[in-house]
Design goal:
By secondary structure, this protein is of the alpha+beta class. 18% of the residues lie in helices and 35% in strands. Strand 4 and strand 5 form a beta hairpin. The longest helix is centred in the middle third of the chain and has 9 residues. The protein starts with a strand and ends with a strand. 22% of the residues are buried.
Length: 79
């Protein structure tokens, strides 16, 4: 399966997060919010600035474009 960034991902498709290419402080903050490698997220909307509204479980977060480009994702396989 091809890995790409959250910024490139299709909307409303379950995705598995990879290891972010962010600095330690940013990775820690995302982990505190539940955005950790291996978690399933769904990009719900694009923002005007190129970011994404993402859903993790029952929570929704808005991420800026630069952060989205540094979050690798893989489409969750059916079955």
């Amino acid at each position: 399966m091809a890995e790409h960034s959250l910024a490139q991902a299709a909307l409303r498709v379950p995705l598995t997060l990879g290891r972010p290419t962010l600095d330690d402080a940013q990775r820690l903050r995302l982990a505190e919010l539940g955005l950790r490698p291996g978690v399933v997220v769904v990009a719900l909307q694009r923002t005007p600035g190129g970011g994404r509204v993402v859903q993790v479980g029952h929570c929704r977060y808005v991420l800026d474009h630069l952060t989205c480009t540094q979050l690798p994702v893989i489409v969750v396989a059916d079955g």
